[in-house]
């Protein structure tokens, strides 16, 4: 259990302590334990845990007056808020599509980089063979033939919305087939 703050001992002293002194004491006492707690909750993602600690302290600052009334409530309140902040963050991440790093397919190799171009071309050709045929067709129409969505839909005999969604999933599948690159 964290130590009592100098000058912040007990109910009456907590009320007399300045909000800044109380917040500084809370930060000093609970930052490390909260960071470890949140890091476990978010499965070791340190940067996310640090952001969540900051959000927890922001909420602490907003409720400092209430917390100052009964110092025994600080620790349980902090851990409850930290848990809720972590749950909210995970729900927010689940509610939006995952971010996908897509290799820059428009990057052209320079004349000095002929071997890189050959390797890249070979890698993309192999990856194209690993994805579903309907995804491959859309990529060929959109990227190799330079078709618009409407043109690709007409040539493939599918609705435009299907072209858009297949393109999205095809690029993701292609990226997964290629694997990590220097730029991603």
**Secondary structural class:** mainly alpha
Strand content: under 5%
Ranges where pLDDT stays below 50 over 5 or more residues in a row are 6-13
Number of helices: 9
Helical content (DSSP H or I, runs of 4+): over 70%
Instruction: Please state the overall shape, judged from the principal axes of the Cα atoms.
Output: elongated
Count of β-strands: 0
The value of Rg in angstroms is 27 Å
Q: Please provide the ordered H/E string of secondary-structure elements.
A: HHHHHHHHH
**Major beta-sheet overview:** none
Give the averaged pLDDT, no decimals: 81
* Straight-line N-to-C gap: 43 Å
Tell me what you see in this structure.
There is one protein chain. Helix content is 71%, strand content 0%. It has nine helices and no strands. The protein has helices at 10-16, 19-41, 46-62, 64-69, 74-95, 114-130, 133-144, 149-156, 160-178. It is elongated, with a radius of gyration of 27 Å.
Characteristic key phrases:
71% helix, 184 residues, mainly alpha
Topology diagram in text:
Blueprint: H1 10-16, H2 19-41, H3 46-62, H4 64-69, H5 74-95, H6 114-130, H7 133-144, H8 149-156, H9 160-178
Helix pairs in contact: 2-3, 2-5, 3-5, 6-9, 7-8, 7-9, 8-9
